[in-house]
């Protein structure tokens, strides 16, 4: 039987190798949020705060805010606390977390894409409905399930007669009915988010942006996703040699999908879906 993904911690150091690129979406989301925040000292929750890069952006935009960062990763929280010692950071699970109903802003950079389909929009709706009138919910999620960076994770894991094959032989990769598999669920279409939030909102703003990140080489793409979507696969592979063989195969397959630019670098297309909703 294939090993299930272990409950291993995330790496703040790995995540921050591309900190500027990852934080770009935070600033784009904030640009649509700030017009809706009228309080001089708003109460803000940063859901899935990671190493605190999004929290820092929130603090810069709202210097007088009282901010609480929430995450489930000890390493991410440790980095966040070291970076922003005056900000409150708490450990919790997004599916069960209950912010103060007096919150002015619930902000989330990427964490909702880790929830399974049957839990993602219900969790989002529950959080939104508990807000006070005029409060704002703002999220962004990577929307790359069908992009080569992520399809090749599934393809590589499903190869037979490879050193890593036994670890995925019964993991049902691609079968969205199996919640134990390492691959994430596809993101719902924009209309699903709109339909879920609009009955309780005075405004719902949904948009999608595909970023084009120029990286040094195909190995850099591996390093990028190793901090996020690739990690559940690596957690399944118990043998270090098999894990390295998996990474080598994955990188080789990336070379067939991402051609070199004129200067030898590569361009990683990275789509993200954004939602801003104001509670009525």
From TrEMBL:
Keyword Methyltransferase (UniProt): yes
Protein name: S-adenosyl-L-methionine-dependent methyltransferase
Domain named Methyltransferase: residues: 44-134
Residues that span the membrane, as ranges: none
GO biological process: methylation
Domain of life: Eukaryota
Leader sequence residues: none
Keyword Methyltransferase: yes
Source species: Ophiobolus disseminans
Molecular-function annotations in GO: trans-aconitate 2-methyltransferase activity
CDD domains registered for this protein in UniProt: AdoMet_MTases
One Pfam family in the UniProt entry: Methyltransf_25
Keywords, ordered alphabetically: Methyltransferase, Transferase
